[in-house]
Design goal:
Length: 197
């Protein structure tokens, strides 16, 4: 197992404050776009600034966008979130379309979420040697030697009748009782007609 998770921030899974309760609150508050006006690795960032920045700002009026030119440096996106977290991203040699996609990712996530090592609410010094439960845990071992497809093993387990079967039985019982009543009525009529003759 890789030990790179040891260097990630850890925390519990949680929803950001106010997210989805009553209204949606965009967690991204501020974006700083740092770029060089002449460097070749900054071409994608310059194209994004020329063609897509105005549309991004108009579609997201709650996000403050700063543009910071600097000489002979790699292009960088710095995102600042509502909870105070900052995410720094180097976009050197990225195409304009890639930067558009990454801006959308930064806008929709709540902070540095994918880089958070999830902690559990329980911990044990003695993990199970048996392993996790699976549907095959308590199966009969003779199934390991069976030839498949097997009608006996593959048959559906039916413990009680389904709702449809119960309705069919009720319908049949109702028809039987109606037929029985009709026969009794016919017998009564035949008996009364015989007595009158």
């Amino acid at each position: 197992m890789s030990n790179k998770v040891l260097f990630l921030k850890s925390g519990f899974p949680r929803a950001p404050l106010g997210l989805g309760i009553g209204r949606y609150v965009c967690q991204l508050q501020r974006v700083t776009l740092k770029f060089c006006k002449s460097s070749g690795s900054n071409k994608g960032m310059r194209d994004f600034l020329e063609h897509d920045l105005i549309d991004f700002s108009n579609q997201n009026p709650g996000i403050v966008v700063y543009v910071k030119p600097r000489r002979h440096r790699s292009p960088v996106i710095v995102a600042e979130y509502l909870n105070g977290e900052r995410q720094w991203m180097n976009v050197s040699n990225y195409a304009r379309e890639d930067i558009v996609k990454w801006m959308e990712v930064l806008r929709t996530q709540f902070h540095d979420g994918p880089k958070l090592r999830v902690r559990k609410f329980w911990h044990t010094e003695f993990p199970s040697i048996q392993g996790p439960w699976t549907p095959l845990t308590f199966r009969d071992p003779s199934h390991n030697l069976a030839q498949f497809p097997n009608k006996e093993i593959g048959a559906a387990v039916k413990t009680e009748p389904t709702a449809t079967e119960q309705l069919i039985e009720l319908f049949k019982a109702q028809q039987m009782s109606e037929q029985h009543q009709q026969q009794q009525e016919i017998e009564v009529q035949t008996n009364t007609s015989e007595k009158s003759n």
